[in-house]
Design goal:
The protein is an alpha/beta fold. The protein contains eight helices and eight strands. Strands 1, 2, 3, 4, 5 and 8 form a six-stranded parallel beta sheet that branches. A two-stranded parallel sheet has the order 6-7. Helix 2 packs parallel to helix 4. The longest helix is centred in the first third of the chain and has 24 residues. The chain is globular and about 75 Å long.
Length: 255
């Protein structure tokens, strides 16, 4: 009986050892995806109440996580260096006006973030204005990226339209704000091989999707992100920040 227990113990140790190696190999720096911070939209949209957002940011601060910019993360990926553990990246999609309240919190905590703006929505009602963007680019660690020209679903557009959505949006943003636009986020996460080539050829450093992809391997031009919701309290947020959350998510088709 003693030999049986010893054998079972060795088997369990071997299983835990192998599982530990598997987790380590599949660790991925979490890139968090936010949208609106309007409390009135949490029931019917991917929105987070600003009070909940503040609590989530304070949880990150108290947990000694290292918030790095998307640009820094992508630079590390490109160089082949190791990303420090407990690092994470903050992103926002669409460029809603209510993000300004979130920027105040990020500024207090000295957190960098990237807001992916839809070029055609700038200055429209409920969206960031050119002045809004110019102000936070000058006084915070928040940067902007392209969320395309018109929020078109990229796998469904022609080659000519794809170039406009990807390349022209970058050009417009760089002229408006005199900043290098190094990142793009695909609307609803959709992309195909044409998109990946166009994005790389246009000169972007990296691109973000949702949990879509051709494989679970980290691709600098199809970085998987983790959606944060209004229901993410300490426990679920801890799980999403662990670096292992993507292992257990089903990979969706990129298009």
């Amino acid at each position: 009986m003693r030999k049986i227990f010893l054998l079972l113990g060795l088997i369990l140790l071997a299983v835990f050892f192998i599982f530990g190696i598997y987790l380590n190999v599949n660790y991925a720096t979490p890139i968090l995806a936010y949208h609106s911070l309007d409390a009135t939209r949490v029931d019917n949209y991917a929105a987070v109440d600003i009070k909940i957002f503040q609590h989530q940011m304070e949880f990150i601060k108290k947990g000694s996580y290292k918030v790095i910019s998307l640009q820094e993360y992508c630079r590390i990926l490109k160089s082949g260096e190791a990303v420090p553990r407990k690092s994470l990246v903050l992103t926002f999609d669409d460029g809603y006006k209510d993000n300004l309240e979130g920027i105040k919190i990020l500024k207090e905590l000295r957190f960098p973030a990237t807001i992916f703006v839809i070029v055609d929505k700038i200055n429209e009602k409920d969206y960031l204005s050119e002045n809004d963007i110019s102000v936070f680019l000058g006084n915070s660690k928040v940067s902007i990226g392209s969320h395309t020209l018109s929020h078109a679903y990229l796998p469904g557009v022609s080659d000519k339209e794809l170039k406009k959505e990807v390349a022209f949006s970058k050009e417009i943003l760089e002229k408006k704000f005199s900043k290098n636009i190094s990142a793009i986020a695909y609307p609803v996460g959709g992309f195909d091989e044409r998109t990946l080539k166009e994005v790389e050829n246009t000169g972007y450093l990296c691109a973000c999707t949702t949990n879509r992809g051709f494989s679970k391997k980290i691709n600098r031009f199809a970085l998987r992100r983790i959606k944060i919701t209004n229901k993410d309290g300490n426990l679920s947020l801890w799980a999403k920040l662990s670096g292992f959350y993507n292992i257990f998510r089903k990979l969706k088709s990129p298009h």
